[in-house]
Amino acid sequence: MRMRMMQLHQLPEDVLYHITALLDCRSLCRLSLVCRSLSRFVSRDSVWKKVAVQLLNSGVDGSGTDIYPHIPLKDRVRIALNWYGGICKKTIALKWKLKLLPWLQLDGDTLFLSQASDIKAYRLHKVSRRLQPRPFDVYSGQQGDVCCFTLMDSHLISGGSDGKILVHSRTSDASMELCGHTQEVNCLDSKDQLIISGSRDQTVGIWTLMSISRRDTIALCDRVWSVAISPTKRSFVTGTACCQNYSPLRLWDVERPWFKPEVEGRLACVCSLGSEFRRGAGVLDIVFESPFQLLTCGYDTFIRLWDLRLCPRKCVMEWEEPHDSTLYCIQTDRNHMIASGSSHYGVLRLWDKRQTSCLQSFQLSSDHVSSPVYSLRLDSSHLYAALASSLHSLDFKTCSQNNLLQMYQLNML
C-alpha cells in the first residue's frame, strides 16, 4: 500500500512548535507566506517568544515575562528590529517658551509632564501613540517648580523646589502635603504604601501613604540626587553628589534598624556600591531591572550595571558615554536595551548590553540650542524625551515590513 505524504501544514501542532523553535526571524516570516494555515499558526505569540527574547524592547524581559501581552508578539518583533536599526520618525510633540526642568512619567495611554509648578496629563492615541495637544487633567499646588514626581495606582506624588511633597489623588481633587525637607526635593520613588524622597538638604525621607509625618530620616551629609525602591520593597538605593569621601551609591534596608539600640529612627545601610568614584561624580538616576540588578548613571559619564548578589565593590558591566557628557537619565526594557539622555544638544542614545559601544544616537535639539535630556520614558513602540523647552517623540513602528529582510542582510542581529 502506498503511504500518503503529509504536507507541512498538516503536521500536528506539537511537531510544528518543535520545527518553528529551530527557525530564526527571517525563516518564520517566510514560513508564514506558505499558506493561510501556516500564517495563522506562525502568528501565535508562543512561536515568536524565543526570537523576541533576543531582541531589543520586544516586551519580553530576561525572565521571559511578557510586558505587553495585549500587542501581538510578531508585530513587536518587527518594531524591535527598528529599535536596533535606529529606524524611527522623530517629531516634536509639545513646545513651550520658557526653559524648564521637565519630568516625565508614562502610565498606559497617559503621559504626565511637569511644567513649572504644574503636572499635566496628556492622552496618547491607543494605536498611533500620538500625543493629544491639550491636557485632560492638571495637578497643581506646589508653591515652587516641580522638581520630580512619581506615580502610584491611586496617587501622584510630586516634590517641589520649596521642599514640600504633595500627594495628589488621581480620582478626585484631594491632596495631602508632606513637610520635612528644608530645600528642594530632587528625587522621589514610591511602591505600594512606601514613599522615599531625597533632597538638596542632604537628607532622605521615608514616608507611608497613610501618614503625613515622616517614618524615618537619614542624614547623608551630601546632596541626594536620586533614589530607587527595590521591586521587593524591602530596600532602596540612594545616589548622592559624591562631594564627600564615600561612595555616592548606598543600599538601605527599609525594615532593619541600626545595630546600635540607642540610635532610634535610623535605617540600616546594607552596603556601599563601588569603590573608585571620582569626587563630584554624583549619581543622577537609578533604575532597578530586577530585585538584584540595577542601572545607574551620572556626572562621571558612565552607565553601570550592579548585581546585589555579587561583590558590591565592583559593577558587573559599564558603558561610557562617547562624548564625555553627563548622563541625566536612563530607561531600560528590562532585558537587553538601555536608553540614555545626555547633557549636550539633547543627545539620546540606545545601547545593547551585549555590546560595549553605543548602538544608536539621536540629536534632538538644534545646533544653536543646547539642552540636556532631563527625562526619558518608553513603551513598546515609542520613546519620549523631555528637553528644556520641548517634548520629543520617536516613533519606531513607522517603517514598512520590507525592512525586515534588509536588516538581516546587513547582519544586524
Would you kindly provide a written description of the structure presented here, covering whatever features stand out?
This protein is mainly beta. It has helices at 13-20, 25-31, 36-42, 45-52, 73-85, 403-409; strands at residues 89-95, 104-107, 110-115, 118-123, 137-139, 146-151, 155-160, 165-169, 175-178, 185-191, 194-199, 203-208, 216-219, 224-229, 235-240, 249-257, 267-273, 283-288, 293-298, 302-307, 317-320, 327-332, 337-342, 347-352, 360-363, 375-378, 382-386, 390-395. The strands form seven sheets. A four-stranded antiparallel sheet has the order 1-28-27-26, with no helix packed on it.
Relevant terms:
4-stranded antiparallel beta sheet; 6 helices; 12% helix; 38% strand
Number of helices, counting only DSSP H or I runs of 4 residues or more: 6
Low-confidence stretches: 258-265, 405-413
- How large is the share of residues in beta strands? 35-45%
Strand arrangement within the widest β-sheet reads 1-28-27-26
Amino- and carboxy-terminal Cα gap: 48 Å
The best one-word shape is globular
Mean pLDDT: 87
Number of strands: 28
Structural class, please? Answer: mainly beta
Let me know the largest β-sheet: 4 strands, antiparallel
Alpha-carbon Rg, integer: 23 Å
**Percent helix range:** 10-25%
